[in-house]
Design a protein that fits this description.
By secondary structure, the protein is of the alpha/beta class. About 45% of the residues lie in helices and about 20% in strands. It has one domain: Vaccinia Virus protein VP39 (Rossmann fold). It is globular. The model has no long low-confidence stretch (mean pLDDT about 95).
């Protein structure tokens, strides 16, 4: 592992994650021997909008039965299980955080989706997949941690089949206004690589993708965070976040993201692109 990969693993991959979440599930009354994706909803979608936004983007990306999907930065597998369990896709998750890959595989096995969703530990900058292997390349809230973005977009283009779809949901830069740290994806600037939305749009076109849909979700995201931070007043959301991240400062980190959205430093974009057919 290089220094960057070690830092990402340190930020996300606090040891004992599966055990911490199963402990919380047991406390909440879930039956671990008959676990369902619904039991995991509060824990396994690590992006703004949670399960609802995964479902919305799945429809936008045209994900249907049998589509082969690559989820880049798959986290602990919530989106992959949703795409597999609800939309019938065959999903490969790719993530650099070993503890997340272990947790993703363990929960997927538990809910009986292991034949439809599998997880690979590796980097978005050097994907361990053959050219033209997927119908859809999907990513949610991972790119903010990924430094060589052009390289990642070229990898996405390479592994997509001609006519395939690229679906992105992430935070992008909106102005020169500085972002205050810590935020949810980084304790400080050293592992934060937010790129301006204008740059991302231009870069994707230069790599060869064709834009199909571009939606600014900033207002929705501010309202979503306001509700979360409000709810965390009763300890529920904050304790889930603490279990996931091992950090106890959820309100501060979520508050800095919300402020960044309000100040116009960052924006949340959901966007769909296509790899042209030959
Ligand atoms: C905020 S989480 C989002 C997880 C998931 N997409 C979701 O929405 O539930 C960001 C994820 O990106 C992963 N990640 C960061 N840098 C990566 C890289 N270079 N290659 C692959 N995954 C990476 C992290 O390990 C983490 O799981």
């Amino acid at each position: 592992m290089n220094n960057y990969e070690t830092s990402i693993n340190k930020h996300y991959g606090k040891a004992g994650l599966f055990e911490r979440i199963t402990g919380m599930l047991t406390d909440a009354g879930a039956d671990l021997d008959a676990l369902t994706c619904d039991d995991l909803t509060a824990y396994d979608e690590l992006h703004i909008g949670g399960r609802g936004e995964t479902r919305n983007m799945a429809k936008l990306a045209g994900i249907t039965e049998g589509k082969e999907v690559l989820d880049v930065g798959s986290g602990i597998g919530g989106p992959a299980r949703t795409l597999a369990g609800e939309f019938g896709a065959k999903v490969s998750g790719l993530d650099i955080t070993e503890e997340f890959c272990r947790t993703a595989s363990a929960f997927t096995e538990r809910v009986g989706l292991a034949d439809k969703a599998s997880f690979h530990c590796g980097s978005a900058l050097e994907m361990p997949f053959e050219d033209e292997s997927f119908d859809v390349v999907w990513t949610q809230f991972a790119a903010m941690n990924i430094p060589e973005r052009s390289k990642m977009y070229r990898e996405m283009f390479r592994v997509l089949r001609p006519g395939g779809t690229l679906a992105i949901h992430e935070i992008m830069g909106a102005s020169d206004t500085p972002l205050k740290f810590p935020v949810l994806w980084a304790g400080d600037e050293s592992i934060s690589f937010v790129r301006p939305a204008t740059w991302v749009r231009k870069e994707l076109a230069e790599v060869g993708f064709t834009e199909k849909f571009w939606n600014d979700m900033t207002d929705f995201s501010i309202r979503w965070f306001e509700k979360k931070v409000e709810v965390s007043g009763d300890g529920k959301v904050a304790s889930v976040s603490t279990a996931l991240s091992g950090e106890s400062n959820f309100s501060e980190r979520a508050g800095n993201v919300t402020q960044g959205l309000r100040d116009g430093a960052i924006t949340v974009i959901q966007t769909i692109w296509e790899k042209p057919t030959r």
